[in-house]
Design a protein that fits this description.
Blueprint (H helix, E strand, L loop, with lengths): L1 H26 L4 H16 L6 E6 L6 E8 L4 E6 L8 E4 L1 E4 L3 E4 L5 H4 L22 E7 L4 E5 L5 E6 L6 H15 L3 E6 L2 E5 L5 E8 L2 E12 L2 E10 L2 E7 L16 E6 L3 H7 L2 E2 L7 H7 L2 H8 L3 E9 L2 E8 L2 E13 L2 E10 L1 H9 L3 H4 L3 E2 L2 E9 L7 E6 L6 E5 L10
Antiparallel strand pairs: 1-2, 1-9, 2-3, 3-4, 5-6, 6-7, 7-8, 8-9, 10-11, 10-16, 12-13, 13-14, 14-15, 17-18, 18-19, 19-20, 20-21, 21-23, 22-23, 23-24, 24-25
Protein backbone atom coordinates (compact mmCIF):
# COMPACT_ATOMS: atom_id res chain seq x y z
CA UNK A 1 0.00 0.00 0.00
CA UNK A 2 2.88 2.33 0.88
CA UNK A 3 4.52 1.63 -2.50
CA UNK A 4 1.28 2.58 -4.29
CA UNK A 5 1.14 5.82 -2.28
CA UNK A 6 4.74 6.70 -3.14
CA UNK A 7 4.16 6.09 -6.85
CA UNK A 8 1.02 8.21 -6.72
CA UNK A 9 2.90 11.03 -4.93
CA UNK A 10 5.68 10.90 -7.52
CA UNK A 11 3.20 11.17 -10.38
CA UNK A 12 1.52 14.19 -8.77
CA UNK A 13 4.92 15.89 -8.30
CA UNK A 14 5.79 15.32 -11.97
CA UNK A 15 2.47 16.86 -13.03
CA UNK A 16 3.09 19.88 -10.78
CA UNK A 17 6.60 20.35 -12.16
CA UNK A 18 5.31 20.15 -15.71
CA UNK A 19 2.65 22.74 -14.89
CA UNK A 20 5.22 25.11 -13.35
CA UNK A 21 7.54 24.69 -16.31
CA UNK A 22 4.67 25.51 -18.65
CA UNK A 23 3.94 28.68 -16.65
CA UNK A 24 7.62 29.71 -16.85
CA UNK A 25 7.71 29.07 -20.58
CA UNK A 26 4.55 31.14 -20.96
CA UNK A 27 6.03 33.95 -18.87
CA UNK A 28 9.33 34.04 -20.80
CA UNK A 29 8.40 33.36 -24.37
CA UNK A 30 11.93 34.36 -25.43
CA UNK A 31 15.30 33.09 -24.38
CA UNK A 32 17.57 35.21 -22.18
CA UNK A 33 19.84 36.00 -25.14
CA UNK A 34 16.82 37.14 -27.17
CA UNK A 35 15.63 39.33 -24.30
CA UNK A 36 19.03 41.03 -23.90
CA UNK A 37 19.19 41.57 -27.67
CA UNK A 38 15.79 43.25 -27.50
CA UNK A 39 16.93 45.41 -24.58
CA UNK A 40 20.05 46.51 -26.47
CA UNK A 41 18.02 47.27 -29.60
CA UNK A 42 15.57 49.28 -27.50
CA UNK A 43 18.42 51.24 -25.88
CA UNK A 44 19.82 52.23 -29.28
CA UNK A 45 16.32 53.16 -30.45
CA UNK A 46 15.64 55.30 -27.36
CA UNK A 47 19.05 56.99 -27.35
CA UNK A 48 18.76 57.97 -31.01
CA UNK A 49 15.13 59.08 -30.69
CA UNK A 50 15.84 62.43 -29.00
CA UNK A 51 15.97 64.79 -31.97
CA UNK A 52 17.92 67.46 -30.07
CA UNK A 53 19.93 65.11 -27.91
CA UNK A 54 19.96 64.42 -24.18
CA UNK A 55 21.00 66.49 -21.17
CA UNK A 56 23.12 64.23 -19.02
CA UNK A 57 23.51 65.05 -15.32
CA UNK A 58 27.01 63.66 -15.00
CA UNK A 59 28.41 62.81 -11.55
CA UNK A 60 31.81 61.33 -10.85
CA UNK A 61 33.45 61.16 -7.43
CA UNK A 62 31.29 62.48 -4.61
CA UNK A 63 33.82 65.23 -3.81
CA UNK A 64 33.49 66.83 -7.24
CA UNK A 65 29.75 67.31 -7.73
CA UNK A 66 27.91 67.17 -11.06
CA UNK A 67 28.29 68.64 -14.55
CA UNK A 68 26.12 69.07 -17.62
CA UNK A 69 26.96 66.93 -20.65
CA UNK A 70 24.83 67.05 -23.81
CA UNK A 71 24.81 63.99 -26.06
CA UNK A 72 23.14 63.30 -29.41
CA UNK A 73 23.26 59.65 -30.46
CA UNK A 74 22.85 58.18 -33.93
CA UNK A 75 21.88 54.55 -34.61
CA UNK A 76 25.20 53.96 -36.42
CA UNK A 77 27.22 54.36 -33.20
CA UNK A 78 28.09 58.02 -33.63
CA UNK A 79 27.66 60.44 -30.70
CA UNK A 80 28.16 64.20 -30.64
CA UNK A 81 28.95 65.73 -27.25
CA UNK A 82 29.04 69.18 -25.68
CA UNK A 83 29.76 69.81 -22.02
CA UNK A 84 30.89 72.21 -19.35
CA UNK A 85 34.39 70.85 -19.88
CA UNK A 86 34.63 72.89 -23.10
CA UNK A 87 33.43 76.19 -24.48
CA UNK A 88 29.64 76.50 -24.88
CA UNK A 89 29.83 76.28 -28.68
CA UNK A 90 32.35 73.41 -28.75
CA UNK A 91 31.25 69.92 -29.80
CA UNK A 92 33.14 66.71 -30.44
CA UNK A 93 31.92 63.64 -32.31
CA UNK A 94 33.14 60.18 -31.38
CA UNK A 95 31.89 56.58 -31.16
CA UNK A 96 29.67 54.78 -28.69
CA UNK A 97 28.49 51.21 -28.46
CA UNK A 98 25.77 49.23 -26.77
CA UNK A 99 26.77 45.77 -25.61
CA UNK A 100 25.88 43.02 -23.19
CA UNK A 101 27.77 42.92 -19.88
CA UNK A 102 25.58 41.64 -17.05
CA UNK A 103 22.81 43.65 -18.68
CA UNK A 104 22.91 46.47 -21.21
CA UNK A 105 26.09 48.55 -21.19
CA UNK A 106 26.53 51.98 -22.84
CA UNK A 107 30.19 52.67 -23.56
CA UNK A 108 31.82 55.84 -24.94
CA UNK A 109 34.53 53.66 -26.42
CA UNK A 110 36.55 56.20 -28.42
CA UNK A 111 38.15 59.20 -26.78
CA UNK A 112 35.97 62.28 -26.53
CA UNK A 113 37.59 65.12 -24.54
CA UNK A 114 34.24 66.66 -23.61
CA UNK A 115 33.09 63.60 -21.67
CA UNK A 116 36.33 61.74 -20.90
CA UNK A 117 37.46 64.93 -19.12
CA UNK A 118 35.54 63.56 -16.12
CA UNK A 119 36.81 59.98 -16.33
CA UNK A 120 40.41 60.48 -17.48
CA UNK A 121 42.73 59.30 -14.67
CA UNK A 122 45.08 62.16 -15.62
CA UNK A 123 42.62 65.06 -15.57
CA UNK A 124 43.62 67.80 -18.06
CA UNK A 125 43.04 70.48 -15.38
CA UNK A 126 44.83 68.50 -12.67
CA UNK A 127 41.61 67.92 -10.75
CA UNK A 128 41.91 65.01 -8.34
CA UNK A 129 44.82 62.72 -7.68
CA UNK A 130 46.91 61.70 -10.64
CA UNK A 131 45.79 58.22 -11.65
CA UNK A 132 42.23 58.84 -10.43
CA UNK A 133 41.13 62.19 -11.80
CA UNK A 134 37.52 62.98 -10.98
CA UNK A 135 36.58 59.31 -10.54
CA UNK A 136 34.08 59.46 -13.38
CA UNK A 137 33.00 56.68 -15.74
CA UNK A 138 32.79 56.27 -19.49
CA UNK A 139 30.95 52.92 -19.31
CA UNK A 140 27.44 52.87 -17.88
CA UNK A 141 24.90 50.19 -17.10
CA UNK A 142 21.48 51.07 -18.53
CA UNK A 143 18.91 50.75 -15.75
CA UNK A 144 16.08 52.41 -17.65
CA UNK A 145 15.61 53.50 -21.26
CA UNK A 146 12.41 55.35 -22.04
CA UNK A 147 11.43 58.31 -24.18
CA UNK A 148 11.17 60.65 -21.19
CA UNK A 149 14.36 59.63 -19.39
CA UNK A 150 17.33 57.30 -19.37
CA UNK A 151 18.89 56.21 -16.08
CA UNK A 152 22.48 54.97 -16.05
CA UNK A 153 24.91 53.91 -13.35
CA UNK A 154 28.69 54.08 -13.71
CA UNK A 155 30.18 50.63 -14.22
CA UNK A 156 33.32 51.27 -12.16
CA UNK A 157 32.42 53.96 -9.63
CA UNK A 158 28.65 53.51 -9.41
CA UNK A 159 27.36 57.10 -9.68
CA UNK A 160 23.75 57.41 -10.86
CA UNK A 161 23.34 59.37 -14.10
CA UNK A 162 20.05 60.86 -15.30
CA UNK A 163 19.48 61.84 -18.93
CA UNK A 164 16.43 63.78 -20.12
CA UNK A 165 15.63 64.99 -23.66
CA UNK A 166 16.88 68.46 -24.54
CA UNK A 167 14.00 70.77 -25.53
CA UNK A 168 13.63 70.72 -29.29
CA UNK A 169 13.90 74.50 -29.64
CA UNK A 170 16.89 74.91 -27.30
CA UNK A 171 20.33 75.52 -28.81
CA UNK A 172 23.09 73.67 -27.02
CA UNK A 173 25.40 76.66 -26.66
CA UNK A 174 22.55 78.79 -25.29
CA UNK A 175 21.81 76.12 -22.68
CA UNK A 176 25.44 75.91 -21.54
CA UNK A 177 25.74 79.71 -21.48
CA UNK A 178 22.68 79.89 -19.25
CA UNK A 179 24.27 77.34 -16.92
CA UNK A 180 27.42 79.49 -16.77
CA UNK A 181 25.37 82.63 -16.07
CA UNK A 182 23.45 81.00 -13.21
CA UNK A 183 26.62 79.54 -11.71
CA UNK A 184 28.41 82.89 -11.85
CA UNK A 185 25.47 84.64 -10.16
CA UNK A 186 25.13 81.96 -7.47
CA UNK A 187 28.79 81.17 -6.91
CA UNK A 188 30.34 82.52 -3.74
CA UNK A 189 33.34 81.48 -1.69
CA UNK A 190 31.13 81.50 1.41
CA UNK A 191 27.43 81.03 2.16
CA UNK A 192 25.16 81.29 5.14
CA UNK A 193 23.11 78.10 5.30
CA UNK A 194 20.02 78.92 7.34
CA UNK A 195 17.76 76.33 8.96
CA UNK A 196 14.97 77.68 11.17
CA UNK A 197 16.88 80.98 11.57
CA UNK A 198 20.05 79.14 12.64
CA UNK A 199 22.85 80.20 10.27
CA UNK A 200 25.95 78.12 9.53
CA UNK A 201 28.91 79.28 7.45
CA UNK A 202 29.67 77.06 4.44
CA UNK A 203 32.45 77.10 1.87
CA UNK A 204 31.90 74.83 -1.14
CA UNK A 205 34.56 72.70 -2.75
CA UNK A 206 33.96 72.16 -6.46
CA UNK A 207 30.20 71.47 -6.53
CA UNK A 208 29.78 70.05 -3.06
CA UNK A 209 28.71 71.41 0.30
CA UNK A 210 29.69 69.88 3.64
CA UNK A 211 26.60 70.81 5.66
CA UNK A 212 26.57 70.25 9.44
CA UNK A 213 23.77 67.93 10.53
CA UNK A 214 22.74 67.36 14.13
CA UNK A 215 22.50 63.65 14.96
CA UNK A 216 21.83 62.64 18.58
CA UNK A 217 23.38 65.87 19.79
CA UNK A 218 26.47 65.52 17.60
CA UNK A 219 27.31 67.52 14.49
CA UNK A 220 28.11 65.34 11.48
CA UNK A 221 28.82 66.83 8.06
CA UNK A 222 26.60 65.65 5.21
CA UNK A 223 28.41 65.88 1.87
CA UNK A 224 25.84 67.28 -0.56
CA UNK A 225 26.71 67.06 -4.26
CA UNK A 226 24.96 69.34 -6.72
CA UNK A 227 24.74 70.22 -10.37
CA UNK A 228 23.93 73.67 -11.77
CA UNK A 229 20.73 73.92 -13.80
CA UNK A 230 19.06 76.90 -15.51
CA UNK A 231 16.87 77.14 -12.37
CA UNK A 232 19.55 76.88 -9.71
CA UNK A 233 21.29 74.08 -7.83
CA UNK A 234 19.93 70.53 -7.99
CA UNK A 235 21.22 67.97 -5.52
CA UNK A 236 22.42 64.54 -6.61
CA UNK A 237 19.77 63.05 -4.34
CA UNK A 238 17.55 64.26 -1.48
CA UNK A 239 19.59 64.99 1.65
CA UNK A 240 18.18 65.21 5.16
CA UNK A 241 19.56 68.06 7.28
CA UNK A 242 18.23 68.57 10.81
CA UNK A 243 15.11 66.60 9.95
CA UNK A 244 14.37 68.51 6.75
CA UNK A 245 14.77 67.12 3.24
CA UNK A 246 16.66 69.19 0.66
CA UNK A 247 16.49 68.65 -3.08
CA UNK A 248 18.27 71.80 -4.17
CA UNK A 249 18.09 75.59 -4.24
CA UNK A 250 16.33 77.77 -6.76
CA UNK A 251 17.99 80.97 -7.94
CA UNK A 252 15.72 84.00 -7.69
CA UNK A 253 16.82 86.42 -10.39
CA UNK A 254 16.15 89.52 -8.29
CA UNK A 255 19.69 90.79 -7.92
CA UNK A 256 19.73 89.86 -4.24
CA UNK A 257 21.26 86.42 -4.67
CA UNK A 258 18.67 84.62 -2.59
CA UNK A 259 18.38 80.88 -2.72
CA UNK A 260 15.02 79.65 -1.42
CA UNK A 261 14.89 75.87 -1.35
CA UNK A 262 12.67 74.15 -3.93
CA UNK A 263 10.33 72.65 -1.33
CA UNK A 264 10.95 73.98 2.17
CA UNK A 265 10.96 77.75 2.66
CA UNK A 266 12.39 77.39 6.20
CA UNK A 267 15.77 76.58 4.65
CA UNK A 268 17.81 79.06 2.63
CA UNK A 269 21.30 79.48 1.23
CA UNK A 270 22.65 83.01 1.04
CA UNK A 271 25.88 84.03 -0.61
CA UNK A 272 28.01 86.37 1.49
CA UNK A 273 31.11 88.44 0.81
CA UNK A 274 34.21 87.82 2.95
CA UNK A 275 37.08 90.35 3.08
CA UNK A 276 40.20 89.30 1.19
CA UNK A 277 42.27 89.25 4.37
CA UNK A 278 39.87 86.73 5.92
CA UNK A 279 39.91 84.64 2.76
CA UNK A 280 43.70 84.25 3.03
CA UNK A 281 43.39 82.34 6.32
CA UNK A 282 40.04 80.63 5.74
CA UNK A 283 40.65 78.75 2.48
CA UNK A 284 43.36 76.70 0.80
CA UNK A 285 45.64 78.62 -1.56
CA UNK A 286 48.31 77.17 -3.83
CA UNK A 287 51.46 78.83 -5.19
CA UNK A 288 54.22 78.32 -7.72
CA UNK A 289 57.76 79.56 -8.35
CA UNK A 290 57.06 81.04 -11.78
CA UNK A 291 54.77 83.82 -10.50
CA UNK A 292 56.78 84.79 -7.41
CA UNK A 293 58.61 88.06 -7.07
CA UNK A 294 62.37 88.44 -6.67
CA UNK A 295 62.37 87.69 -2.93
CA UNK A 296 60.36 84.49 -3.22
CA UNK A 297 62.50 83.26 -6.09
CA UNK A 298 65.68 83.80 -4.05
CA UNK A 299 64.39 81.56 -1.26
CA UNK A 300 62.74 78.93 -3.46
CA UNK A 301 65.77 78.73 -5.75
CA UNK A 302 67.62 77.05 -2.89
CA UNK A 303 65.20 74.10 -2.86
CA UNK A 304 65.53 72.08 -6.11
CA UNK A 305 68.95 70.75 -5.03
CA UNK A 306 67.61 69.87 -1.59
CA UNK A 307 64.62 68.08 -3.10
CA UNK A 308 67.05 66.13 -5.27
CA UNK A 309 69.13 65.15 -2.23
CA UNK A 310 65.96 63.96 -0.52
CA UNK A 311 65.02 61.98 -3.62
CA UNK A 312 61.56 63.56 -3.49
CA UNK A 313 59.55 65.65 -5.92
CA UNK A 314 57.69 68.62 -4.46
CA UNK A 315 54.11 67.76 -5.45
CA UNK A 316 52.17 70.64 -3.89
CA UNK A 317 52.48 73.68 -1.64
CA UNK A 318 49.62 75.58 -0.06
CA UNK A 319 48.52 77.99 2.62
CA UNK A 320 45.65 76.49 4.57
CA UNK A 321 44.61 74.61 7.66
CA UNK A 322 45.81 71.19 8.76
CA UNK A 323 44.02 69.67 11.75
CA UNK A 324 42.60 73.09 12.48
CA UNK A 325 45.97 74.90 12.48
CA UNK A 326 46.93 77.49 9.88
CA UNK A 327 50.21 77.05 8.09
CA UNK A 328 52.24 76.13 5.02
CA UNK A 329 51.15 72.66 3.88
CA UNK A 330 53.41 70.66 1.59
CA UNK A 331 53.56 67.29 -0.11
CA UNK A 332 57.09 66.05 -0.78
CA UNK A 333 57.38 62.59 -2.27
CA UNK A 334 55.13 60.37 -0.18
CA UNK A 335 55.26 62.66 2.86
CA UNK A 336 52.88 65.44 3.86
CA UNK A 337 53.44 68.04 6.52
CA UNK A 338 52.49 71.47 7.83
CA UNK A 339 54.80 74.22 9.07
CA UNK A 340 52.66 76.39 11.32
CA UNK A 341 52.16 80.09 10.64
CA UNK A 342 50.51 82.92 12.50
CA UNK A 343 48.80 86.04 11.26
CA UNK A 344 47.30 89.38 12.20
CA UNK A 345 44.46 90.81 10.13
CA UNK A 346 45.02 94.54 9.81
CA UNK A 347 42.02 95.46 7.66
CA UNK A 348 40.02 94.05 4.72
CA UNK A 349 42.96 94.21 2.31
CA UNK A 350 46.03 93.97 4.58
CA UNK A 351 47.43 91.11 6.63
CA UNK A 352 50.62 90.33 8.55
CA UNK A 353 52.07 86.82 8.21
CA UNK A 354 54.99 84.85 9.64
CA UNK A 355 56.14 81.28 10.19
CA UNK A 356 56.35 80.25 13.85
CA UNK A 357 59.19 77.74 13.45
CA UNK A 358 56.89 74.95 14.66
CA UNK A 359 54.90 72.33 12.81
CA UNK A 360 53.35 68.91 12.90
CA UNK A 361 55.61 65.84 12.94
CA UNK A 362 56.71 66.03 9.32
CA UNK A 363 56.48 69.82 9.15
CA UNK A 364 58.83 70.30 12.07
CA UNK A 365 61.31 67.70 10.75
CA UNK A 366 61.46 69.14 7.22
CA UNK A 367 61.81 72.71 8.51
CA UNK A 368 64.75 71.76 10.73
CA UNK A 369 66.50 69.05 8.73
CA UNK A 370 65.64 69.82 5.09
CA UNK A 371 65.63 73.64 5.15
CA UNK A 372 61.95 73.74 4.20
CA UNK A 373 61.64 77.05 6.05
CA UNK A 374 62.83 78.57 2.74
CA UNK A 375 59.36 77.90 1.35
CA UNK A 376 57.78 79.94 4.16
CA UNK A 377 60.39 82.70 4.46
CA UNK A 378 58.83 84.94 1.74
CA UNK A 379 55.77 85.22 4.00
CA UNK A 380 57.87 85.88 7.10
CA UNK A 381 59.66 83.60 9.58
CA UNK A 382 60.29 83.85 13.30
CA UNK A 383 60.92 87.47 14.27
CA UNK A 384 60.52 88.62 10.66
CA UNK A 385 56.85 89.49 10.22
CA UNK A 386 55.80 90.73 6.80
CA UNK A 387 52.77 92.90 6.06
CA UNK A 388 51.06 92.37 2.71
CA UNK A 389 48.56 94.30 0.65
CA UNK A 390 46.02 91.88 -0.86
CA UNK A 391 44.35 92.12 -4.25
CA UNK A 392 41.83 89.64 -5.66
CA UNK A 393 40.37 88.93 -9.07
CA UNK A 394 36.76 88.73 -7.80
CA UNK A 395 35.53 89.37 -4.27
CA UNK A 396 32.44 87.20 -4.78
CA UNK A 397 34.38 84.19 -6.05
CA UNK A 398 38.11 84.74 -5.76
CA UNK A 399 40.33 82.40 -7.73
CA UNK A 400 43.60 84.36 -7.40
CA UNK A 401 45.07 86.57 -4.70
CA UNK A 402 48.13 88.79 -5.13
CA UNK A 403 50.09 89.54 -1.96
CA UNK A 404 52.52 92.45 -2.15
CA UNK A 405 54.92 93.19 0.71
CA UNK A 406 54.23 96.80 1.73
CA UNK A 407 57.89 97.24 2.70
CA UNK A 408 59.41 95.50 -0.31
CA UNK A 409 57.65 95.63 -3.71
CA UNK A 410 60.02 92.90 -4.95
CA UNK A 411 58.25 90.45 -2.63
CA UNK A 412 55.09 89.51 -4.54
CA UNK A 413 53.31 86.18 -4.04
CA UNK A 414 50.43 84.92 -6.19
CA UNK A 415 48.00 82.50 -4.53
CA UNK A 416 45.61 80.28 -6.53
CA UNK A 417 42.45 78.46 -5.51
CA UNK A 418 43.20 75.49 -7.80
CA UNK A 419 45.86 72.93 -6.95
CA UNK A 420 49.14 73.34 -8.83
CA UNK A 421 51.29 70.40 -9.81
CA UNK A 422 55.08 70.76 -9.83
CA UNK A 423 55.17 74.13 -8.03
CA UNK A 424 58.97 74.42 -8.50
CA UNK A 425 58.69 74.51 -12.29
CA UNK A 426 60.17 77.70 -13.72
Amino acid sequence: MRKVFNIWFLLMALVAMTSCQQEIEDLFDKSSSERIDDAMDNSVKILSSASNGWVMEYFGGSQYGGYNVICKFKPNGEVTVASEAGKPDATFTSHYKIEQSQGVLLSFDSHNPLIHFYSDPHNPNNIGDDGKGMNGDFEFRVLKAAADSVILVGKKHGARILMTPMAKDMKWDAYLKKIAEVEKAMRFKFYNFVVDKDAKLLSPSYRTFAIPNEVDGNSVDVICNYIVTPKGLKFYKPYTINGKTLTGFKYMNDGKFKFPEFVNSEISLNGILIPLSQQVVSLSWYMKFSTMGKVGRQFWNKMPGIQEQLGEDLKSTALGKSNGKFGFIFESGKYQGCMYMDYKIIDDTHIQLWGTGKGDGNGGWYAKNALFYNYVAPFGWGDVKRTFKIEGDDLQYTTELILTDVDNPDNVIHLYSSKISNPLDH
